Amino acid sequence: MKKSQTLPQTPESDYEGTQRQSIVIPSKHITIANSFEKKEHSWFITSHVPTDLTIQVQDVTFNVHKYPLISKCGYIGRLEFQPSISNFGYDLKLESFPAGSETFEIILKFCYGLPMDLNPNNIAPLRCASEFLEMTEDLQDGNLISKTEAFLTFVVLSSWKDTITVLKSCETLSPWAENLQIVRRCCNSIAWKTSRVNIVGDTDCQEGWWFNEVATFRIDHFMRIITAIKAKSTRPEVIGKCIMHYAERWLTGMHVEFEGLRGYGFGKNDLQFSVLSRCKEDGGYVHSKEQKAIIESLVSVLPPQNEAVSCKFLLRMLKMAMLYSASPALISELEKRVGMMLEDANVNDLLIPSCNNADQGKLVKIVEYFLMHEQQGQQQKTARINVSKLLDNYLAEIAEDPNLSITKFQILAELLPENARTCDDGLYRAIDTYLKTHPSLPEHNRRRLCRIMNCDKLSLDACMHAAQNDRLPMRTIVQVNVQVLFSEQVKMRTAMQEKESQSGNNSEQEGNHSSTDAEIKNLKAELEDVKIKMAELQSDYSELQQEYERIGSKQRNVSGWSLGWRKIKNSFHAKVEGNETGEGQQRPNPAGRRPPSRRRSSMS
């Protein structure tokens, strides 16, 4: 391809109307043609001089004169023409012409000196075609290359709308538009204008209008625009919003959301079918290779800052990357970024479709990345607490899946270190949901699950619920009953300290000091009594455990456990009620509460 010459300096007066969208170039030469006539797929010159050249562009044939084209087109002047078989002229076929027959018609008008219209829709094809035909200044001053360059530089690039139009037309002109720097100049112009918009104002309305315009381009031109915008030091959140807007427009599955297990239980083929079905309803057609290319391109230009895009968007992109089998390196990059922002996620976002067995470990990797960043001091102190609550809610959601293995549940439950949870109520709720969904789970697996949680970290309400929960193994029930009694001890201790404080600070009630001492002694005695009864309860449990190990029959197993549990339960309730009765004869309940065995839980 021959390089065009430097443009001559053009007086500014020639381009005073730079905001106009077209320029009509009048005839400056005597022409041998009056007009063009079209008959089916052929164009004819209306002239008194017979034509001597037939040029075929695509499926259209032009019957023209050789001299007007040779005088302005260096490419045609260098060709050796083949004599025509059908007439007395020559035949020429332009097989690699970069534009269509409509563009060649405009070039013919220019060569014949007829008026031609330059506008944003045809300027890029004309610029590429004139370069192909070598319409340089060497042949004639003011040839088409210089005219199209001037219009592109002074008219198009000064207007946002015209620049968008020209760049859109370049999508069918590769590689000519790239080599002539038309794409680069348009992208730089767009980037400069967007940077000016963000400097002048930063409202969503002002940002939104150019998001929509930029999102209309195909992915390679969009990437060029984003690269140019980054070079202008545009804020990362602005770039991130633009990328998210583009993804929502071009990635069909980005809007497919399934609440709860409906999304989690979807396999890859099921999810692909759902995405394709929705796309078909919208009248479109999805090419998986194109979708994969878009995903990989968008992830590659994401700004590294956390504030650039939301965690929800990253998780959606992760789902799409898995759906369209993106590269492992890209999926790993998304997992790392999600791990850095995991505390901002919600349960539905984490329900990644189980495409295959390997995909079930995605959340494990994400949490590992989160913990790694936390160890490096890149996470806030509250992040671990928020993530532990998120993970517990996630476990409670997937626990309703009847196909979820106990091993996977346990792995997910033990992802966080023990000190990450300040309260195990959420973990208990997830375990209870799993036991409810899997009623036939063996006793040893029930104990295996309950060992995950720390009964000492359960709230009083959770302990009361667990104490009456027949789905839990016996050992766990005894432990939570111990926790309930311990809570009562703490309340007694608190009441004692309050009364001692009141008696010490109130000198006017010295006369009642003896009665206060008696109450304190009674509380201490009751506390010791609770300890003794607790030891008896633990002894009952040990005897019951030994009895269970001796029983081999399943029927006797059930009856033995039922009898033993009634024994412990009645013993526990009777002892606590005995405390209440004795206490009621001496003093009112210091905590003002009913006994644990009679409270109704609010967690069921």
* Strand order, largest beta sheet: 2-3-5-4-7-6
Structural class of the secondary structure composition? mainly alpha
In terms of DSSP E residues, the strand content is 5-15%
Helix content: 55-70%
Largest sheet: 6 strands, mixed
- Global geometry: elongated
Number of strands: 8
Q: Taking all residues together, what is the mean pLDDT?
A: 76
Q: Calculate Rg over CA atoms.
A: 40 Å
Low-pLDDT parts are 1-21, 25-31, 201-205, 259-263, 265-285, 355-359, 552-562, 572-604
The N- and C-terminal alpha carbons lie at a distance of 79 Å
Tally of alpha and pi helices: 26
Summarize the structure.
Belongs to the NPH3 family. This protein is mainly alpha-helical.
Task: Write the SSE topology.
Elements: E1 23-25, E2 35-39, E3 42-46, E4 53-57, E5 60-64, H1 66-70, H2 74-77, E6 82-83, E7 90-94, H3 101-112, E8 116-118, H4 123-132, H5 144-156, H6 160-169, H7 176-179, H8 182-200, H9 204-214, H10 219-231, H11 236-250, H12 261-264, H13 268-281, H14 288-300, H15 311-323, H16 328-340, H17 347-350, H18 362-375, H19 381-398, H20 406-413, H21 425-437, H22 443-450, H23 460-467, H24 474-505, H25 513-550, H26 554-586
Parallel strand pairs: 3-5, 4-7
Antiparallel strand pairs: 1-8, 2-3, 4-5, 6-7
